[in-house]
Design brief:
Layout lengths: L1 E3 L13 H10 L2 E6 L8 H5 L8 E12 L2 E8 L6 H28 L6 H5 L9 H10 L6 H9 L12 E2 H10 L3 E4 L2 H4 L3 H13 L4 E6 L4 H13 L3 E5 L23 H14 L2
Parallel strand pairs: 1-2, 2-3, 3-5, 6-7, 7-8
Antiparallel strand pairs: 3-4, 4-6
Length: about 280
């Protein structure tokens, strides 16, 4: 029995509907999956009520984009109680406006640099008009401006290149406290993607644990064996639940498959059980 606690739908930057995610989970022989769209819970009702003949355990979640000392960190909230949906959507509304404006500014800067593209054309490539830098990178690749998404980020979409200015974000530590306040489970997503080194991850975990951080992704599509081993060690050191997810986006990241990532994942069902147990403990 396997699970996948990090997936995206058309309600953020994935290419499949919430219902299709459940279907893919069944085809992939998964026993539990979470929907964790970026800064929105608008797909959760459809996800949790999707046809589910295999009785897969469905976890309603969200992936908050947050800031810690100028570093963008992603914090997952899992097992989001339905009574807080409206409150969460209101909480992230301003953040989404800031994000859209930063993406508009990025596209305008790319146009000034000579690229033949428009914001509307990029929006039209997505099911719900949701855009982030990965979508922009995909569009640039399909237009032939770059050979890969990673090349687009390296040459144009990284803040260090001067074309993209990240929007102001929620505080990572405040977000962890908020997730705990509503009885949900907080998980640090893909720590090596943002914090880069073991020392920086340890520094963050030291303060995040005091704020009530519940878990950390140790099984992740883009982690090396060494990075997985380090995060497992750190999870034990800080008494955190070991979580894991593919970060499945569908056709926007075709190399990543639900449940198996880049054929390097095998997330045990016990990950779901441990997260669910923490949720139950919080809501006795």
């Amino acid at each position: 029995m396997k699970c996948d606690m990090h997936n995206h739908s058309i309600f953020s930057d994935g290419t499949f509907t919430p219902e299709k995610l459940v279907e893919i989970a069944r085809e992939s022989n998964l026993s539990a999956i979470a929907l964790t769209d970026h800064n929105t819970i608008l797909g959760l009702d459809r996800f949790l009520n999707a046809p589910n003949s295999s009785n897969i355990h469905l976890v309603g979640g969200i992936e908050f984009s947050t800031d810690y000392k100028g570093i963008e960190l992603h914090i997952l909230g899992l097992f989001i109680p339905k009574e807080f949906y409206s409150e969460i959507e209101e909480k992230v509304k301003n953040e989404l406006k800031k994000k859209e404006q930063s993406n508009i500014n990025l596209v305008n800067n790319l146009i000034k640099k000579g690229f033949d593209l428009t914001y509307e054309d990029i929006k039209n490539t997505t099911p719900n008009g949701n855009i982030n830098r990965a979508v922009i990178a995909n569009y640039m690749m399909h237009k032939g401006y770059v050979e890969s998404v990673s090349e687009a980020f390296e040459k144009y979409l990284n803040p260090s290149n001067g074309l993209y200015t990240p929007p102001e974000k929620l505080s990572a530590l405040d977000t962890i406290e908020y997730i705990n306040s509503i009885g949900a489970v907080s998980v640090l997503a893909h720590p090596f993607l943002n914090l880069k080194t073991e020392d920086k991850i340890r520094e963050f975990l030291t303060v995040a644990k005091e704020k009530g951080l519940d878990g950390m992704e140790v099984y992740y599509s883009k982690f090396s064996e060494e990075q997985t081993a380090i995060t497992e060690k750190l999870a034990d050191e800080f008494n955190l639940i070991k979580s894991g997810g593919s970060d499945f986006h569908g056709e926007n990241k075709p190399e990543i498959k639900m449940g198996t990532g880049k054929c390097n994942l095998n997330i045990p069902y016990s990950v779901y059980e441990n997260l669910k147990r923490r949720f139950s403990e919080k809501n006795k």
